């Protein structure tokens, strides 16, 4: 099974990539949290410092996650299970007005 991850702004700088294909065992239960942990292992401290709160270890509230264009907040958040071929976009905070 694979999941395509798309990076924007700061994460694009950290990873030096626009997107990355991650592979997982076919029988694995893969959630957004699983993907973030795999990326943290690959990209280390810079990724961890940006994505996780240093004091609590919780994913930063300013990040948004879209699965095939649908907000994970309307699903099960970080525990949303991903399927083979899903596209996970990690979006930075949006500002403007």
Largest sheet: 5 strands, mixed
CATH class type? Alpha Beta
What is the CATH topology classification name?
Ubiquitin-like (UB roll)
Average of the residue pLDDT scores: 94
Q: Which architecture does the CATH hierarchy give at level 2?
A: Roll
* Structural domain tally: 1
Name the helix and strand elements from N-terminus to C-terminus, one letter apiece.
Answer: EHEHEEE
Helix count?
2
Low-confidence parts: none
Binned strand content:
15-25%
CATH homologous superfamily grouping: Beta-grasp domain
Q: Sum up the overall morphology in one term.
A: globular
Sheet with most strands: strand arrangement: 2-1-5-3-4
Secondary structure layout plus pairing:
Layout: E1 2-7, H1 9-15, E2 19-23, H2 32-51, E3 64-67, E4 70-71, E5 87-91
Parallel strand pairs: 1-5
Antiparallel strand pairs: 1-2, 3-4, 3-5
Task: Give your account of this protein's structure.
- There is one protein chain.
- The protein has 97 residues and is α+β, with helices and mostly antiparallel strands.
- It has one domain: Beta-grasp domain (Ubiquitin-like (UB roll), Roll), CATH 3.10.20.30.
- The chain contains two helices and five strands, in the order βαβαβββ.
- It has a five-stranded mixed beta sheet.
- Strand 3 and strand 4 form a beta hairpin.
- Helix 1 packs across helix 2.
- The longest helix has 20 residues.
- The radius of gyration is 13 Å and the shape is globular.
- The N and C termini lie far apart (40 Å).
- The mean pLDDT is 94.
